[in-house]
Amino acid sequence: MGEVISLESRRRSAVPPEAGPPDAVPRRTSPEPWPASPAPGPTEPLWREVVGRRLRDLRRARGERLADTAARAGMSPQYLSELERGRKDPSSEILAAAAGALGVPLREIVRLAHADLARGAGSRGSVRLAA
Prior knowledge:
Blueprint: H1 7-12, H2 47-61, H3 66-73, H4 77-84, H5 92-102, H6 106-118
Helix pairs in contact: 2-6, 3-4, 3-5
């Protein structure tokens, strides 16, 4: 194998930006801290969270168990639970199946979710994606 060179020794031996061609991107020779993340503040909720909340509200209003609604929709109770908690982003087919199992037209779920989003219901902190 090759020799181990510490990162600090490579930084010290880095060529200064003046030595490179005029159009070269300057090298960073000293580490600086990353800029601070913006403070978390209220943002609009995700579509899947609003739709999930509405599905759960409709199911509970009918007094149904998760397993019963899931069986009629042709999905597992675990998957329906994840939809209701906003963990999964449903396809149009899945959403139509859940709406049909609840006896509600798909357009009604979309209308209710749109109304929630329009008034900013369910605002929460920033969304951060894993790198």
